[in-house]
Amino acid sequence: MAVRRVVYGGGDSLDPTQKLKISSHDQQPLDSVFASAPSKPFLVSGSRAMLSFGSVGGANRSGNLFFSSSDQEESGDEYLEEYFSQPGKKRRLSADQIQFLEKSFEAENKLEPERKIQLAKELGLPPRQIAIWFQNRRARWKTRQLETDYDTLHASYMSLKTNYDNLLKENEKLKAEVLRLKDNGLARDTDKALFQEMLKETIADMISQDEESKVSAVAFKNEDQSLESGDSSHVVEPDRSDLSQNGEDDLNEELLQPDYMFHKIEDAHRHHPASSFYCGFPAEDHIFSFWSY
DNA sequence: TTGTGTTTTATTGCCTCC
DNA sequence: GGAGGCAATAAAACACAA
């Protein structure tokens, strides 16, 4: 087994008088050492988070092993020296010591030098060991804190995910609804387009009939005039002022305007009063109901 | 009793602060 | 530069099942 350096009693800035090489087999022999160690009361300073080891319920078994008498520190107890000089051993703290340290940690998880010394005195442990215990305790606290934070975040994530999934489902439902409504709308648009096409054809027929009759009338009139004046070179074009001169596209555009269609239909009806139907549709279904559609 | 996993104690090396 | 903190790690101590 490799020999490990075990130095206690003040950390890196160790007071040489407090340096000890320590090891132990287990807590029992250590306790017996504590029990046999001379106990000497020491002053407890007013440092914060300071507790009395006796108040935790355990007797101060340790006495002042590391801070007892100057004699002990100077001469060194041979028994203790032998006891603590066994390398490669780790000393477990007693339940009472741990309870005391836990209470102290709860009050303040940082360890000022003064408090370290005080705790060491109270527990009869080397200040270095107190420092190490706090160091490890902080590490454990941090690990547990991380676990707690993780659990909290995970719970939050799961809650958000549930909400998100619900929203997705709702979104899908709404999309389907929109699609369904759109399909209905398309069907109506198809009917509308068919109706418009039929309307255009009918109106175009009516207009052409109307134009033909106008042309005939003008021609007849012109014929009369030319007969009267003897001028046969004067050719009168049919009146297309109410029609676009830009061809079929503009006609189509105009045909879709309600006023124009109303005018033409009324006009057609005036010329063809026998028809009780507009454009082959019953009167009640005529263009106005279509445009309000 | 022994193998194995977990917890606790302690060291090392690096970093920051004064 | 020394003191102290922290992360990483080693190793002893402990718990427990087979």
From TrEMBL:
GO molecular function, a single term: DNA-binding transcription factor activity, RNA polymerase II-specific
State the residue spans of region: Disordered.
223-248
Compartments (UniProt record): Nucleus
The secretion signal range is: none
Stretches of the chain forming a coiled coil according to its record? 157-184
The keyword Endoplasmic reticulum appears for this protein: no
What does the UniProt keyword field contain?
Answer: Coiled coil, DNA-binding, Homeobox, Nucleus, Transcription, Transcription regulation
Principal subcellular localisation of the protein? nucleus
The record's section on Pfam families has: HALZ, Homeodomain
Gene3D superfamilies membership: Homeodomain-like
Respond yes or no to whether keyword Transcription regulation is given for this record: yes
Instruction: Look up the DNA-binding region in the UniProt entry and give its residue ranges.
Output: 86-145
Q: Which family does it belong to?
A: Belongs to the HD-ZIP homeobox family. Class I subfamily.
Question: Per its database record, what is this protein's job?
Answer: Transcription factor.
Q: What is this protein called?
A: Homeobox-leucine zipper protein
Q: Name the species this protein comes from.
A: Sesamum indicum
Q: Gene encoding this polypeptide?
A: LOC105168765
